[in-house]
Amino acid sequence: MQQEDSRWHRIDGPLDAKLKGLRDLWLIWRGTETLAPTSRFEPQSVTDLMPWIVLADVIPGTEGTRDYDIETRFIGSAFAQYFSADHGQRMKVSAIGAPFTERWFNVADAVLAQRDCCSFLGAPYLNNFPFTQFEMCVLPFTTDGARLDSLLFAFAMSLVKRDA
């Protein structure tokens, strides 16, 4: 995975043990429902992942490249460092700017279409960490039992060997 590649690449499921554990918790929270209710999300059960988590709301009916937007509610400290996202919560994906807007909308498009856990591989793009690779697990949640209205993005980092 090269840092010059701005896309996230879909994989079949989480590879990282902590992300697998998070997905398994989400399956318990979901139970027999189509989507996991946000009320069942327990941050205390994933404290070791919180620095690597981003919580976001799906906002319907917006104008732009999509008929929805994504607005961050919580950005973990490790994510903020590696993705240069220390500018705070309540940022909309549509406002991030190219090429990052499409990078994150493509992920959200996949999760919204599947309405299930989705996993991806990618690298930080245009920053000072060229020898890192990330795995991302995105979990959809609902507040009303029907509409997918929030997303939990969780990340695991690994180092990539430099070419000689």
CATH homologous superfamily assignment: PAS domain
Number of strands: 7
Mean pLDDT: 87
**What percent of residues adopt helix (DSSP H or I)?**
10-25%
Tell me the number of structural domains.
Answer: 1
Termini separation comes to 16 Å
Question: How many whole angstroms does the radius of gyration measure?
Answer: 15 Å
Poorly predicted regions are none
Order of helices and strands: EHEEEHHEEE
Structural class determined from secondary elements: alpha+beta
Strand content: 25-35%
Level-2 CATH architecture: 2-Layer Sandwich
CATH topology: Beta-Lactamase
Q: Mind summarizing the main beta sheet? A: 7 strands, mixed
Determine the number of helices (DSSP H or I, runs of at least 4 residues).
3
Q: What characteristic shape results from the CA principal axes?
A: globular
CATH class: Alpha Beta
Structural notes for this entry:
The chain is built from three helices and seven strands. The protein has 164 residues and is an alpha+beta fold. The chain has helices at 17-30, 77-82, 100-114; strands at 9-11, 36-37, 53-60, 68-75, 118-122, 132-142, 148-159. The model has no long low-confidence stretch (mean pLDDT 87). It has a single domain (9-39, 47-159), classed as PAS domain (Beta-Lactamase, 2-Layer Sandwich), CATH 3.30.450. Strands 1, 2, 3, 4, 5, 6 and 7 form a seven-stranded mixed sheet that branches. Strand 6 and strand 7 form a beta hairpin. Helix content is 21%, strand content 30%.
